[in-house]
Amino acid sequence: MDRKLLFTPGPLTTSDTVKQAMLVDLGSRDSAFLKTVCEIRHRLLQIAGVANAGYEAVLMQGSGTMGIESVISSVIPPEGSLLVLSNGAYGRRIAQIARRLRITTHLVEFPEDRPLPADCLRNAQPATHVAVVHCETSTGLLNPVKTIAADARRAGGSCIVDAMSSFGGVPLDLGDSGIDYLISSANKCVEGVPGFSFVIAQRDALLGTEGWARTTALDLLAQWKGLEADGQFRFTPPTHALLAFRQALIELEEEGGVPGRAARYKANHNTLIAGMRELGFIEYLRPEYQSHIITAFRYPQNPAFHFSTFYESLRDAGFVIYPGKVSSADCFRIGTIGRLFPSDFTALLDTVRNTLSELNSN
Questions:
Q1: Contact 149, 178 (CB under 8 A)
Q2: Which range of residues forms the domain containing residue 103?
Q3: pLDDT tens profile 122-161
Q4: Domain total for the chain?
């Protein structure tokens, strides 16, 4: 199979050494594997800035959405409620999950083209828990999650943050943040492979959820108890994905941690934006709202442009981009994370230029 570069929000292009880490078969109860799980959990707390601050790292099999469902289904009491602050598709997904679980859910939607206002809780419906997305991957904007979490705590609520596409690529220190649960996935900015999600949970908040879980496989507290008791997952773990993730964490540290990785992603983003503007593309978001994670571009006002044709042409040349997910505009997205460098974006831009010329000539 031809290797292609993934300009997506995940799964991502990974390093050869991350791929090679999966060439080892380990038993799920093998001491070497249990040591790997322990190391991963500790490194995650270090990245979050809470290695000694009353937080726990809980690994959960499945996709990032399953990690979110694990938290939503486990930490809200039977008579509790969830306030979801949304300015994009992934905020709405949180509300969809909660409603399917028959949790009293209040969804407050804001415009998709700007961050949540800092005072968005001022007139909101009271709830035991507040959920917000850090980087709304449908557009690439960043929300002020620490401000929202602090306001939620002052109001007596608990804050859940979806940091799926930001953890490891955007500095966010959880210490004294007011964030009780932060969820992310192995195949995002840490640059691992798909197979599991993880939750950075405030220990006292997590311990207070005994008996609240609405599922068996996604029971967050039970999962933590199992990991604490003997280092083992309650059900078959994604062993190869965990070995890859350990290597990815080492490479994150070697790159200078989150600040170092963010610097590379910013360089990728700057190269992309300059080139796309030169080619006539317009970003969906205003520059001051745009993160360095992923960028949504509006379709050009050109009758010759058809996204499916554009996508396939880029893919055939070895570059995979992403469809749009904005509800009110025709857009496509290009991610700037993963094992990519500015030279990769220069090559992508050359191919975009050639593709546009071909579309206009047909």
A1: yes
A2: 16-254
A3: 888 899 999 999 999 999 999 999 999 999 998 889 999 9
A4: 2
